[in-house]
Amino acid sequence: MPLLFRATTTARRLAERAPRLLREPPEWQTGLIPMDEAAPFDVIHRRAGATLRHYPKPSDMPQPAAAPRTPVVLVPPLSVHVGVYDLSRERSMVSYLQARGFDVYLVDWGRASRADDRRRLADYFAGLLPEMLNRVRVHSGRKRLSLHGWGGGGHFALCHAAMSAPDAIANLVLVATPIDYHHSGALGARVRRMAARGRRLREATGLVFGRMPPVLLHAPGWMSELALRWGPRDGPADGDDAAYAEETALRLRATGVQSHDGAAAYPGGFVADVIDHLWIDNALAAGRLPLRGSRVGLENVRVPILVVTGQRDQQATPAATRALADVVSSRDLSFLDIDAGHVGALTGEAAARESWPRIADWLCAHDRPRR
Domains in the chain, start-ordered, CATH in brackets? Predict the structure, then answer.
């Protein structure tokens, strides 16, 4: 088991160095996104550490003459600070969608602890997410919902759509959501090498990460912070590059560093499924759900889809996101590439200028009068 031994040794050394590394702020930690008072919201449901937010429209906010009828549910990935959707009065995706007339909801997955290590990837898209969406339907009085998923949240939304009743999901907006993990630029090359080693290890020993004790794969928050601060950057590391500086500042906000919450942990079972299904097997690129034994595939997804990708994004390159076209049955599939990184594709200046209006226009064009 040399591979597992090396991984364990590396993790131990990182754990020993983590406190010092996290006390030493990197040079790009300056220029933080300003933090204003958050948009008001009501928590309308709680379950297993997750909460469902509803953002009531401010009484003094002008509304369009013909407001869209289909609610929008924002689905983030795990381990992010949801304040990234509502950065400031001048940069709030939540407020922008409200101003365009949408009824906005957001799922906050909370902060996983070691008590949650048995939680698997499917526990989110086939368990918690359906429960949250049913609460949205009760609260809004609307059956059909539009899902907006960013990163891993896009995986949750996409996989849930594959398992849903035909008329339950109206539209999907997927932002920075990789489908083909093996062909995502430099990061994809690393994943391919890791997958090759993982397959050899599986063939030689029968090891499947999903069968290991999940506590061994628990990923504490400091690992996410180390990856953020010292990992590869989206775009050129040029101090005069405003987009690069913005992306690094947005990453701080997305992981809770700026608000001093710190990055959240990933449950061990979730990590095992990411390694087995997304990295080694590249299941989504093959049209399969990351759920062992599932007879449902991504070919069941027939709803309209808008895919937004940051051209600087090293985690979800255009090649990795456009692979979606090969595995879904949607006849209405649109792609939008913007000059942004992974977080900037969601809430950066280019997103506010280009993709937010395009998303709102697209959702309005696909709004149908049925309940």
Answer: 22-365 (3.40.50.1820)
